[in-house]
Amino acid sequence: MHSDTKAFQAIQKTAICARDLHATLGSGAARRAVLDVAALDIAPGRWTCIVGPNGAGKSTLLKALAGLLPCDGHLAWNDIPLQNIPVRARGQQLAWLGQGDGLALDLTVYDTVMLGRLPHQGWLETPSANDIRVVETALRTVQAWDWCPRTLGQLSAGERQRVLLARALAVQAPLMLMDEPLTNLDPPHQADWLEWVRASVQSGTTVLSVLHEITLALHADAIVVLDGGTLRHHGDSADPDTHRAMEAVFGRRLAIHRVHTETAGSQWVALPVLASEAQP
């Protein structure tokens, strides 16, 4: 991490600040509240993971924090109210990877990742030498450089996901928000993703992700526990209070244990609990 990045983080209070965040979906009699978060501060230069059961509102919260979902309340990025950040600047400050992002399957891998550079380019401006270098680096990072001329339609679901990860990396934004980034990735590439996230955080990026893979989520620096669209807990991933909150929202159907490995030392894992064995 560069010294100027460290200095900025020393004075920066939050990467994302949300207060009284409320969102609803539907209309008329079908209108319902889907998000009710009184206060949430995401620390800069750390990896925070959002977890919770199905329907907890994880993706909804992530979209709200990304400014992609209309909602009431106060939202700020890097201590600047979101409404004061121009659209172009938002594109430069935030890299987004969402679930089911619309894909043009006839688009080449190279052109897909180059889309991540659009916020840094002028209107109808051709890619610069720096854009080309950044795209190559992102593709090589996810081990997809050799696929450049292929179209997305020629790739498997897991390969396409790696290309989308490269597109997010190519933005080179200080904020990176990812919704289920491990979808369709096999275990070795999930491990690679963990390394990419750690490298991004080391370079000063703030990473916020939604994961269903609870054991992998426990590798994060901090965890946001969500249920019913409400924040239940926010704390360090190794904090016993965080573990108890996670176990509670999953109805005691998982248990978090410490394990020791020869290569990685002490780690936390989440193991499933049978319904007949779950404690009330």
Description:
The protein is α/β, with parallel strands linked by helices and 280 residues long. It has one domain: Rossmann fold. It is 31% helix and 28% strand. The protein contains nine helices and twelve strands. It has helices at 3-11, 58-65, 87-93, 109-114, 129-141, 157-171, 187-202, 214-217, 240-249, and strands at 16-25, 32-42, 47-51, 72-77, 80-81, 94-97, 175-179, 206-210, 222-227, 230-236, 254-261, 265-272. The strands form three sheets. Strands 6-7-8-3-9-10 form a six-stranded mixed sheet, with helices on both faces. Strand 4 (72-77) and strand 5 (80-81) form a beta hairpin. The radius of gyration is 19 Å and the shape is globular. The chain starts with a helix and ends in an 8-residue tail after the last strand. 36% of the residues are buried.
